[in-house]
TrEMBL record:
NCBIfam families linked: PRK11780.1
Source organism superkingdom: Eukaryota
Protein name per the record: GAL3A protein
InterPro entries: Class_I_gatase-like
Length: 224
């Protein structure tokens, strides 16, 4: 039997949900490793809905679970029903939904609140010593919940290639160790079984983002 990996989604679309290319890369690489993805999302309203053509919020209302089901091809469960016992690992793709729907990082930064069902899931996998993979912005969840952990969101010096590098500085303020890594690399926190990679935190060609996520998935499955 292949490993069973919970994949937690945050909606559908980079600016208000899960980053679709990252979620797809996780699915493809899990399949390649012979692992089974099992999708979950919280049954809550999105913080807001963004028109991805205009890049601006609209008055629309959408549900995180319903929108995440688009990526999961309908095969998804309410995150509140996740049972860590039957699962081998957890992966959370990035996208602004992580910072808006799974937490309040987008508006409060290091003073954010993590959604209770998300925090419960992360703590359950951590307590069971089961690996957790995170990419793009999602490592901020671990930074908030597991003080002193080691993570990467890419580089800590802002430039054209690394437009979101200030995130690394904020994570350091939370007491984490940030490790600079290229987009095709991962960092493994052996003690906490956390595997992180920067994905679209970097202005990189999509195949490099895809390759970095592949290494993250491979390492998570290996640790499971």
């Amino acid at each position: 039997m292949g490993k069973r990996v919970a994949v937690v989604l945050a909606g559908c679309g980079v600016f208000d949900g899960s980053e679709i290319h990252e979620a797809s890369a996780v699915m493809v690489h899990l399949s390649r490793e012979g692992a089974q993805a099992e999708f979950y999302a919280p049954d809550v309203d999105q913080m807001h809905v963004v028109d991805h053509v205009k890049g601006q919020p609209t008055q629309e209302k959408r549900n995180v679970l319903v929108e995440s089901a688009r990526i999961a091809r309908g095969d998804i469960k309410d995150l509140a029903k996740l049972d860590v016992k039957g699962l081998d690992a957890l992966i959370i793709p990035g996208g602004f939904g992580v910072a808006k729907n799974l937490s309040t990082w987008a508006t409060q930064g290091k003073n954010c609140v993590i959604s209770k069902v998300v925090e419960d899931a992360l703590k359950a996998f951590h307590a069971a010593k089961k690996p957790i993979g995170m990419c793009c912005i999602s490592p901020v969840l671990a930074a908030k919940i597991f003080p002193g952990c080691e993570l990467t969101v890419g580089h800590d010096t802002e430039c054209e290639k690394w437009p979101y590098a200030k995130t690394a500085e904020t994570m350091k303020e939370l007491g984490c160790k940030h490790v600079n890594k290229h987009v095709t690399e991962v960092h493994v926190d052996v003690k906490n079984k956390l595997v992180t990679t920067s994905a679209f935190m970097c202005n990189a060609p999509i195949h490099e983002v895809y390759d970095g996520i592949g290494k993250m998935v491979k390492e998570v499955v290996r640790l499971a």
